[in-house]
Write a structure and sequence with these properties.
Layout lengths: L26 E12 L43 E11 L7
Antiparallel strand pairs: 1-2
Length: about 100
């Protein structure tokens, strides 16, 4: 019986992407995430499709650390069932020589 030698090559993960170059040193981007309408299918167990009509995610509590802040006050669903809307806004800060 002959023996076979197997050689495994380990691939290195690709380097992390570099941050995009900024147009000016005085501007910064802020990302605001909000959660829109509920997309949970309430009729999935009977083979249909029905959403509850909740228009926007409303947290039960304002504090992010509490478990209740992940539950919608309007429909009772988890935040992951709501459509995620990412809004980017560029804020320009003026240095001392701007007027």
């Amino acid at each position: 019986m002959t023996k076979r030698r197997v050689v495994l090559k380990r691939e290195e993960p690709p380097p992390p992407p570099s941050p995009p170059p900024m147009d000016s040193a005085n501007s910064s981007n802020t990302v605001h995430v909000r959660y829109g309408e509920c997309q949970r299918n309430h009729a999935a167990n009977v083979g249909g499709y029905a959403v509850d009509g909740c228009r926007e995610f409303m947290a039960v509590n304002n504090e992010a650390e509490e478990e209740g802040s992940l539950t919608c006050a309007a429909c009772g669903c988890h935040r992951n069932f709501h459509r995620r809307v990412v809004e980017e806004a560029e804020e320009a800060s003026c240095s001392s020589d701007c007027e």
